[in-house]
Amino acid sequence: MSANRPAAVVVLAAGEGTRMKSATPKVLHEICGRSLVGHVVAASRELDPEHLVVVVGHAREQVTAHLADIDAGVRTAVQYEQNGTGHAVRMALQELGGSWGSPRTESGGGTVVVVCGDTPLLTGETLSALVATHGADGNAVTVLTAEVPDSTGYGRIVRDAETGAVTAIVEHKDATGEQRAIREINSGVFAFDGALLADALGKVRTDNSQGEEYLTDVLGILREAGHRVGASVGSDHRQILGINNRVQLAEARALLNARLLERAMLAGVTVVDPASTFVDVTVTFGQDALVHPGTQLLGATHVAEGAEVGPNTRLKDTQVGPGARVDNTVADSAVIGESASVGPYAYLRPGTNLGLKAKAGTYVEMKNATIGEGTKVPHLSYVGDATIGEYSNIGAASVFVNYDGEHKHHTTVGSHCKTGSDNMFVAPVTIGDGAYTAAGSVITKDVPPGALAVARGQQRNIEGWVARKRPGSAAASAAQSAAREGSAEG
Length: 490
Ligand code: UD1
Ligand code: MG
Hints:
This protein is elongated. By secondary structure, the chain is α/β, with parallel strands linked by helices. The strands form six sheets. The protein has a 19-stranded parallel beta sheet that branches. Residues 118, 242, 244 line the site of magnesium ion.
């Protein structure tokens, strides 16, 4: 166990987030495939705290259900009225109950880290560095600060002019003109000595412009009581970007996306145009994967080594095998085998499983379909609820007719089959190994291995029909000339 293991991380997420102007609680808005609070919880987990408590209030049923979904180990503390960040932390310590009041817990930690639920860019690394500084300096509290280009709205870090020591945090609304000029701001992230925090929170007053219990006042209280108050200046102010509206949401998404792509590129992935490539935090790559412009990779998508995806492709929860090529494609929960080829203009729906070197070509839709090694469905086809063996070829413009209006049925095509163009396979039906079907067939009965199935009307040519029914037309005169030339040659 790490010496710096905190006793608890408290995530503040009770606020409504009015400025989002949304029916969805602020902390449940998503960037890169994870909710805002989900990002903060994930970063907090990297500290391996004994307790992880999220303070919920506004829309707490929804937020609590979401938290249970993403991290079963998270505890919640309810703050019924949002009386300020200090009050919120009090609610969290109350929830933790028995563990508090003694300066050190069994693990020797005793440190309580507080973070806001709306700062999704904060990394576990930054949190760890804060906790390490806090421990090494023997502080009662250490606040993570940053120098920002525009400090409007943030709490300002006030330092002693001579010693440079932090003396207080003053909220924007309560700050004097001189204090507002300060560029160093409170990130909202703190490491506290838990016992001193619990004690100081009892002394926080509400005589400020918002009539709230400010967590930030704890710094001044601890300092006046003679305790060490420290600050750790973060190296990247973008990490502490707090999301209050949808402009900042988009800003944070762009920054996180760029960070994820940068990590992928440094690990050996070629991203042709990072500006038009979008990935979720859960996406993974093999070495030498190549991503073309206009590509969105979502959820648990994996692009294996040497595979090439895009342009203009959206893959969700999809596995792309080594060396596969996926072009102008939309796929959801599909498995694309090694060296398989998909698109351009393919749509792979859940349950599609393409084998080694298999092909789902142009204007091809598949759903719940297993396509064997080397089998090709090259053009204009729908394959739904089907199993196709190895090295078969499905003719252009074929439809696996799987739905009778009430139920879905399965079609099985064997290995080394060649089915003609424009076939309808009316399920349930089975085509045996090595069988052929004629173009334009509507296959309603099983085809034995090695047979040729022909299931279409016989062609009938009615001689002279155009001359009789369309006299004087261009078609009639073309037919007449053709007949003359034919008899001259003959
Ligand atoms: C807070 C800080 C400010 C800092 C800024 C960084 C205080 C008093 N101010 O201001 O110094 O620069 O964050 O982004 O701490 N929350 C609750 N319960 C409450 C109030 C807030 O859970 O009663 C939660 C919110 O959901 C949010 C976080 O605490 O996740 C911060 O609250 P917010 O209202 O955004 O505070 P700021 O005004 O941004
Ligand atoms: Mg805020």
